[in-house]
Amino acid sequence: MTADRARRHNRGGAESERRGARYPVTSDVAPSALPGPIRSPGARGASGVPAAGRGGARREAARHPGGAAGIRADTAAQLEAPVTVRGLAEHPRIAGRYRVRVSAAAGEAELLLGASGVGDFAVRAGRVFDDEQWRRVQREARIVAAQDAALRSLASGRRSERDLVQRVRRRERDAGVVADAIERLRVLGLVDDAAFADAEAAAKLRRGTVSTGQVRRDLRRRGVAAELADGAIAVASEEFEVDDAARCREAATKRARQLGALAPDVFRRRLGAWLMRRGFAPGVVAPVVRQLLAERGTGAPDDTIATDDDGEWPVGAADD
């Protein structure tokens, strides 16, 4: 890896180039998937958080079959202040997350908060939230839920910031809540389009038939800024000694065998369109197609490949 590439990766933390890489995070802002001890409103441990064993959690779940604590989180929005905290329990599977059971005149609900939220709002049994405090607590719970949804998505593969926003918006409609959740991950270095572009460009360009144009198009489609995409492609191209003309020639030769004995005009149109859809520039495609036509004995080396004024393949050339 070149020094330039190492510096680019170090900006946001090294990101694995293997798809499906896990993101080992143990802070309260971004919990790990490691199981943690279950805690319930009882004796307090050394940390000051009420502690109990796993057996208590199982008994609690048996008494409330509707969920881990038997109360649906989406009922919290229906409660009106004053709202009283009835219990606090550490999540049995996600370190740094706490289940907060609350009640009001309309009934009960359960929220999931991070350790920082528990501290910021002084959450403890008997704590009463007024209307303003309750709105802030609910918003914090939504940010935590959005953040955890983003972390689950990151655990399954590399994501750009746009990827994450689009996925989290499927469950959280408030753009401000989503933005706050993504910002917390950005602070941790888990959302970094520069590192994402570096990893994606390297993973794709190490394959010998992928064009730099296709990689740039894919990165831009996923929301990566043009300068970040171009920088990542430049570094990966140098590292893997990418030659678009040679790659275009290799891909065109294989494709030409599949096209068979087509008429020269049809061969030119279909092969050229196929290559351009794979990100090869018109200036790279045209001489390759001319050479293959000449080798077939159906065209001269100086045959031209017609493109429009913007260098794009003509209308109708996308036919396979």
Task: Describe the SSE topology.
Blueprint: H1 3-12, H2 54-63, E1 83-90, E2 97-104, E3 107-114, H3 115-120, E4 128-129, H4 131-155, H5 161-168, H6 175-187, H7 193-205, H8 212-221, H9 226-240, H10 244-259, H11 264-277, H12 282-296
Antiparallel strand pairs: 1-2, 1-4, 2-3
Helix pairs in contact: 4-5, 4-6, 7-8, 7-9, 8-9, 10-11, 10-12, 11-12
Task: Please provide a brief summary of the model.
With 320 residues, the protein is an alpha+beta fold.
Structural class: alpha+beta
Number of strands: 4
> What is the typical, i.e. mean, pLDDT?
78
For the sheet with most strands, the description reads:
4 strands, antiparallel
* Proportion in β-strands: 5-15%
* Basic shape: elongated
Distance N terminus to C terminus?
39 Å
**In DSSP terms, counting alpha (H) and pi (I) runs of 4 or more, how many helices?**
12
Written description of the protein model:
With 320 residues, the protein is an alpha+beta fold. The chain is built from twelve helices and four strands. It has a four-stranded antiparallel sheet. Strand 2 (97-104) and strand 3 (107-114) form a beta hairpin. The longest helix has 25 residues, at 131-155. The radius of gyration is 28 Å and the shape is elongated.
Descriptive labels:
320 residues; alpha+beta; four-stranded antiparallel β-sheet; single chain; 8% strand; 4 strands; 12 helices
